[in-house]
Amino acid sequence: MLYNGDCPVCSFEIDRYSAYSGRRGLPIRFDDLNGPRLSDWGLTEDQAARRLYVLHDGEVRSGIDGFIVLWRQMPRTRWLGRIVALPGVRQVASVLYDYAAAPLIYRWHLRRQARA
Predict the structure, then answer these.
(1) By C-alpha distance, which of 9, 15, 12, 28 is closest to 75?
(2) Name one Pfam family in it (predicted).
(3) Is the backbone of residue 16 left (phi > 0), alpha (psi -120 to 50) or beta?
(4) Can you give the pTM of this predicted structure?
(5) Structural domain that includes position 34
(6) Quick one: how far is CA 56 from the chain centroid?
(7) Residue 36 scores a pLDDT above 90
């Protein structure tokens, strides 16, 4: 999974997933886009900062589809992955993520970068 470790919202959520998967011994790797593994993903830093990416079974998924893949890998959140994957729910969740949450978090990221 690729995420923005400099983003307080992203790192809060991903730190919880990482801690949980570590305790359970789940084979999930969490790559910070600000670290050396970004080149493994074939994305620029700007592309990676715009949304969440998950690589699973050789396929890169992003946005809500990425979250669904991630949630399905963890017993505690498997139910959430099943619900969000339902027809209608997936579309609504994708619209909310693509047009509200992701752009808002990305703009926040750009403001933090400008201040640094």
Answers:
(1) 28
(2) DCC1-like
(3) alpha
(4) 0.92
(5) 2-115
(6) 13
(7) no
